[in-house]
Amino acid sequence: MEVVHISAECYPVAKAGGLGDVVGALPKYQNKAGITSKVVMPMYRTPFLYTSDWVVDYKAKAYMGGWEFEYTIIKEVNNKLGFDLYLVDIAGLLDRQKIYGYADDAERFTAFQIAVVHWMSHWNHRPTAVHCHDYHAGLIPFMMQHCYDYHHLRSVPTVLTIHNAQYQGWMPWAQSVLIPKWDLSKKGLLDWGNSINPLAAAIKCAYKITTVSPSYMQELMHHANGLETLIASEKNKCVGILNGIDHEVWNPATDTYLTAHFDVDTVTAGKQKNKEKICEQFGLDATKPLFVFIGRLVGEKAADVLPAALHTAVGAYGAYASYMILGSGDPAVEAGLTNLAYTNKNIKVSLGYNESLSHQLYAAADFLLMPSRVEPCGLNQLYAMRYGTVPMVRSTGGLQDTVVDMGDAGGYGIRFTHANETDIVHAVGRAIEVFENKTHLLWMRERMMQVNHSWEQTVQSYTNVYKSL
Ligand code: ADP
Q1: Is 296 helix (H, G, I), strand (E, B) or coil?
Q2: Domain residues of the chain, as ranges?
């Protein structure tokens, strides 16, 4: 069985969030399970590119609209990631440092997809499945089936995994000329709400759709940023498969970013050492419970609620806790949090993306706050649990599939219902009570560290999807 993953992100090559983590891990565990699983992604100019060895695998020319462009496919030669990794270079479009956020992202990702499909159409074998991730690869199932030049690929099954349905890649119809000559009678497959919607096109054209948790699958039929009726009508080809975590990368006993390593037997002392280091670095008191938030500062994560909620929490429990936020996003939220940190010595904010600090915070924190309004799976809470950090989550999507409230039998987390100040402050109060009860805290840590969220058990669910195609 040969599966080709197509994605905009893959850790450690380029990562902006959970998509990168999943595409960096799932193929590795699929290879371990005997599936030939490869990843194809854009060749951004990230450090990984310059610290790895590559060979040119293919070079050709393709058209996007009237523009003939040259693309090059390079392959990593040392199997560094545990799977075959291919990068697509297109001068002027993909040769940039950042993954997203450019005015010409529609052209960038369309050209990337054209190059991938063009390349695959020249293979002299057919893969078992082409597995597309999110909207950046969403035009691929349509192109494989309805672009005249790629008719060789028409019968190759495609799978779409929706990591986040908020982002759909909308393009005005004027940009339809970018897509290589296609069967105009299939216009309806590209269209949603009078624009080209790559995510909707993939939902319509892919043989199977997976989402990254079962609860998110259910939620999408009611809230999918405009696609709910489409998803509900395609529900027979949809399945929710909970993400795993890469235990080789996220292991407190070996994680090279940490100050002190620990496992379930040494969790109390190990976490305290990491906490002392972080508290010394940021000027916090290591005897107090440490609450952290790590993530994109956007509405989905309810980051807009954080300034007011932390302000109230500090008012209520000021002397008893410290808070640390790592993230970037909405400038208003960034400003609100920065102002709060100016006026309160128990709150620290680190704006930006910082992989090593994120690992250190999972290890150092006592509690991880995730008040998300939408959380397709959520990896932060899984990493937190692996590092003995109590997750405090709003009951939604993957958070509700993975965190059991400490009030329920065997529970090791804190759940709340609303992404608002009242619920967050109440959850902080519950957390402080647990922190005072060291026996209960230790029991929870030991329990959560032993929950198995490894990819090994998830890989089989994906294999079942491929077999069903
Ligand atoms: P999403 O993909 O919606 O952002 P997930 O919970 O699925 O959320 O995955 C988030 C991933 O991104 C985790 O690996 C988390 O540690 C990482 N991450 C998010 N923000 C930052 C940041 N500012 N610095 C470092 N890592 C971050």
Answers
A1: strand
A2: 2-244+456-468, 267-449
Ligand 1 atom nearest to 296, measured from its CA: 20
Helices (H), 18-74: 18-32, 47-50
Query: Which pLDDT value is given to residue 320?
Result: 86
Taking the centre of ligand 1 as the mean of its atom positions, its distance from the CA of residue 464, in whole angstroms, is: 28
Gap between the Cα atoms of 131 and 282, Å rounded = 42
Select 2-244+456-468's CATH number: 3.40.50.300, 3.40.50.720, 3.40.720.10, 3.40.50.2000. Answer: 3.40.50.2000
Q: Which residues of the chain have pLDDT under 70?
A: none
192: DSSP letter: E
Q: What was the pLDDT predicted at 4?
A: 98
pLDDT for position 96:
97
Query: Closest Cα to atom 4, ligand 1: which residue?
Result: 17
Q: Among 215, 243, 296, which is best to mutate for testing ligand 1, by the most ligand atoms less than 8 A from CB?
A: 296
381 in Cβ contact with 368 (< 8 Å): yes
- Whether 9 is in the pocket of ligand 1, judged by its Cβ within 6 Å, is no
- Partners of 86 in the β-ladder: 40, 75
Residue range 267-449 forms a domain whose CATH class is alpha beta
The answer to whether residues 46 and 97 touch, using CB atoms and an 8 Å cutoff, is yes
Rounded Cα distance between 421 and 102, Å, is: 34
Instruction: State which H helix or E strand residue 444 sits in.
Output: helix 438-449
Count of other CB atoms within 10 angstroms of residue 177: 11
Residues across the chain: 469
Name all contacts of 148-152 with Cβ < 8 Å and 24+ positions apart.
Answer: 148/180, 148/181, 148/182, 148/183, 149/118, 149/121, 149/180, 149/181, 150/117, 150/118, 150/120, 150/121, 150/180, 152/121, 152/126
pLDDT of residue 91: 98
Query: Tens digit of pLDDT for each residue in 363-398?
Result: 999 999 999 999 999 999 999 999 999 999 999 999
Rounded to whole angstroms, the Cα distance separating 1 from 354 reads: 37
Question: What pLDDT was estimated at residue 457?
Answer: 81
Could you tell me if 461 and 241 are in contact, meaning their C-beta atoms sit under 8 angstroms apart? yes
